[in-house]
Each structure stands twice: as structure tokens, then as C-alpha cells.
Amino acid sequence: MTMYQRDPELARIEQKSQSVLPIMLGVMVLLLIQLWLITIALESYLAANMALAAPTFLASLFCFALNLWLLKGLYGLDRTDG
Predict the structure, then answer these.
(1) How confident is the model at residue 63 (pLDDT cuts 50, 70, 90)?
(2) Which of 20, 44, 48, 77 could form a disulfide with 52 if both were Cys (CB 3.0 to 4.6 A apart)?
(3) What beta strand segments (E) does 11-71 contain?
(4) For residue 64, is it within any domain?
(5) Domain assignment of residue 58, yes or no
């Protein structure tokens, strides 16, 4: 029988850090995709190709909204006391 007991606060911090890493990786990947999409949208707009510029701009806005949602969830995860 061991006398070792884990600190519950340390376990909670470790659990939070394990859930933060995938969220941050998702934010970084979405940010790179958004940058790629907005670059395509701007190049298409400058080339007067509105058929490609509008959908890529809308896809970039969708990525932005998804990033905001993920970051809001991350802030909510940080504020929870349980």
C-alpha cells in the first residue's frame, strides 16, 4: 500500500492543460486556413474575378467566426472553478 496521494488541484490543472492544447492547435490551424483563404480572396478581387473572391471571403469569415467560438470556449474553460 502506498502513501502517495495526488493533489486534487494539481490534477484539475493537468486536466485543463490537456484540454487546452487541442483547442489551441485547432485555432492555429484555422488561422492558417483563414490566412490562405483571405489571400486567395484578395488576389481574386484585385484580378477582378468576383466569382472566386466572394466565396473565399465568406469562407474566411466562417473561419473567423469559428476561431472566435473556440477562443470563447477557451476563456470559459479558464474561468470555470470545477
Answers:
(1) very high
(2) 44
(3) none
(4) yes
(5) yes
Domain span including residue 36: 23-77
For residue 48, report the phi and psi dihedrals to the nearest 5 degrees: 60, 35
Q: For residue 31, is it within any domain?
A: yes
pLDDT tens digit sequence for 2-18: 567 777 777 777 777 77
Residues 60, 65, 68, 73: what is their CA dihedral angle, to the nearest 10 degrees?
Answer: -130
> Which residues lie closer than 8 Å to 34 by C-beta, 6 or more apart?
60, 63, 64, 67
**56 and 41 Cβ atoms separated by less than 8 Å:** yes
Q: List pLDDT tens digits, range 21-61.
A: 888 899 999 999 999 999 999 999 999 999 998 999 999 99
